[in-house]
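Example record

One chain of 308 residues, shown exactly as stored in the release files.
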Amino acid sequence: MILGGDLGGTKTLLALAERTDGKPRIIRKQRYASADYPDFDSLLGDFLSDAPTIENACFGLAGPTDGRRAKLTYLPWQLSANAIGRRFAIGNVHLANDFATAAHGLPLIGAEALIPLQTGIPLTEAPRLVIGAGTGLGVAGLIADGGRHRVIPGEGGHIGFSPQTAEQLALAQWLLRQRERVTTEDIVSGPGLTRIHRFLGGASLPPKAIADAAIHGAEPVAIATVDLWLACFGAFAGDLALHWLARGGVYLAGGVAGKLMPHVDLSPFLKAFNNKREHAHVAMDIPIQLITDEELGLKGALLTAAGR
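Predicted structure tokens for this chain:
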């Protein structure tokens, strides 16, 4: 038996699975509200109340890790692979960045969960990039390595925000008066929707309320908020795509992106993604796909556990 988990600031997904032809077959899974638990051990203890025998476990989490210890960026949870292994009698426990596990999960995503946003001219052996906007902003790369792809984890969401328009510069200056540094994650995330809405003169609403209002055309400020958010997201994704020369494809994931982007006009995103001056033709050759499967990270964690 193997165990996989996708641990985020908003939700945690856990699943038990068996190996079938080297791939995980899920037997049982559960979704939890992360904030309902003071620590991860309490949540995991609830899921493993029947004390199953587990050989390998992998947990993808929203925060940096060395594989053995980690602290989540937006929760007070601190994890120790050794301590988890001892308490729950798990043979091997591995901690990974949540977007590293998301990248590992790409082979398990079916065509029905992919929405093409830009066809581009894909190159099979070229780097790929996974970018996810949710509670935070996650990034991971994949490079070809002997017939398979090797995952390169990172904390790219914490790159400093680079405004590309006068409005974006005003947004950055507005945020800089509130904090000592403005990162892209401050803007391209669920909380970023709330910040942009306030910047544009709206109320301090939850991200879902802003997204719903924009989708239904119910509030002009919400529509403007989403347009600005998409433009910031597109510019950032396009910059990273140029950095990686990600002709293998850019895959957009994350709870906010997956729930919002299929229902709104994406021209602000695509215009900003491709607005790369003399390198615009390079950006336009890069394929972009939106992943709507919320279990991408969980599937990647299970696949990682299955291979250990």
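Notes: The chain has a mean pLDDT of 95.
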